[in-house]
Amino acid sequence: MALTPPRTLPPGLLIQTGQWVWSSLWQVMMSQMAPRDRDGAYIRPASQFRHDLGLPPELEKTEPEKIQPEKIQPEKTNSPHPAEPNRYRLIVGLSCPWAHRTLVVRALKGLEETIAVTLVVPRPEAGGWIFTEPFAGCQTLAQAYALAQPGYQGRCTVPVLWDDRHNTIVNNESADIIRLLNDRCNHFAQVPQRDLDPPDLRPTMEDWNTKIYHRVNNGVYRCGFAQTQAAYEQACGELFEQLDELEATLQHQRYLCGDRLTLADIRLFTTLFRFDAVYYSLFKCSRRRIQDYAALGGYGRELYQLPGVAETCNLQQVKQDYFGNLFPLNPGGIVPQSSQSFDWLAPHDRDHLPLSAA
Prior knowledge:
It contains 11 helices and 6 strands. With about 350 residues, it is of the alpha+beta class. The chain has 2 domains: about 55-190, Glutaredoxin; about 200-325, Glutathione S-transferase Yfyf (Class Pi), Chain A, domain 2 (Up-down Bundle), CATH 1.20.1050.10. Strand 2 and strand 3 (about 130-135) form a beta hairpin. The model is unreliable at about 20-25 and about 65-75 (pLDDT under 50).
């Protein structure tokens, strides 16, 4: 007696149903992970903690010419968080480019012995970042935010500049934190002569920062988190237009602002470091790799090879966290192998370009 085959949905209907279910779920998950505008373009929420570091009491009494008034604004020296060694720490995730900026500046300024670091890792099932070791009685970053501000309902992001004395958050905006490390913490840095925020270059730095933030730093996320074809194409076009401009500029000068390394370079570097391994494929930034740009690739290598910078870079952790935890973009959580990875230790070939002795 022949068995009657089980009834199944017609293949076409099955596929349509699956597409509808997955598309609906995808929209819900993306709306939580990546807020969008009416055109489907990703909108990055603003940071909520923007406090400053003030002068420690002993420097408030220092003669004005010895405290570099152009670097420390007098109206901000009444902060409840004076810049003191061994009082503050950075809470960072090694995969996060925004947190990575703070680690690079910490290394370049020689603040490793006076600014501690606490690590978090992403865990979607826990709703965000968790501490690798218990911290201040907290298991998750969200609990630390609640400790700093009871009832806090915003996003719990890294990096965080944390005040150990008061168990609270000073700042969670990377652009602020790297300036605080360079300017406010300079009196206890081991490399105080390295000024990454020189006053005479600030207008040029800000011009670059404005373009690079929108088109590159956040631009890769605008590509990866775009929820319409039009939003993706606009973001991708702007990204590669900006990379082309950077390539043309760096063919003729050592750094973004000329012959001196600045915070603008650090802000760009942490995105470049992740580009070929993650953004090129996962975020669909696939027109070209950074290693395909002669000047931009060499520039990235030079920054990577600066003393202390390589120790802040963990490409395996970057790949694991992006591919393993961004479920809406990579449901299987499979981390790809790289057959043509960027060789960060290859010669950068930029010694022929002028370099400031300062």
